[in-house]
Amino acid sequence: MMVRIFPYGAIQFMAFDKYKKLLRAKLGKSEHVHRLMAGSMAGITAVICTYPLDMVRARLAFQVKGELGYNGILHTFKTIYTKEGGLRGYYRGLIPTIVGMAPYAGFSFFTFETLKTTGLRHFSDVLGKPSSDNPDVMVLKTPASLLCGGVAGAIAQTISYPLDVTRRRMQLAAILPDSEKCRTMLETLKYVYNEHGIRRGLYRGLSLNYIRCIPSQAVAFTTYEFMRQVLHLNKTL
Known about the structure:
Layout: H1 2-27, H2 31-62, H3 73-83, H4 87-90, H5 94-122, H6 124-127, E1 128-130, E2 138-140, H7 142-171, H8 185-196, H9 198-202, H10 206-230
Antiparallel strand pairs: 1-2
């Protein structure tokens, strides 16, 4: 759903830069802490700003043609608002999403930034090149950036996937027959685990999700690095 992806990505990467600068000023030079905390905070910020769009996306993707009657984005917004408690309906499952996004975004940014820094420090002649906007700053070559982004996405997805399953289950609770068993995050986790176990429940679909998240994160981080050069933001690392 492109309507959600664009604002989500823009907010997340902008917030990461802002939070990293803020944390550096407040906490000093502990770069590992900055990366993890700034990434988590950026992910949470982006989720809160775009969650209603994610809810609508989930409903449109899940519905069976001819049964639920969601007819486009605006109609889905209206239906959720009128039938599921107003604004509260848009934020069903927000808490597990935030709990899941904190480690996902945190480890994603942390892994990418750590791989990037390590690669440029020890293998700059192979992996790096001078930034187009500031020759004094080294940046990753495109293949290296894609690789680091893909690895970051895979690690972050593996860590946070059970909470992502919980989020999706809670978003769909209102239209599934056993909705009373999935009212809270802990209830939903327990229900999925008891019914399906770990591999077929909490991690069901992970391999397919890798096919989506690894290339998407690779492209996202590479685009982020490229746009930093285009917008002349590489004054300092």
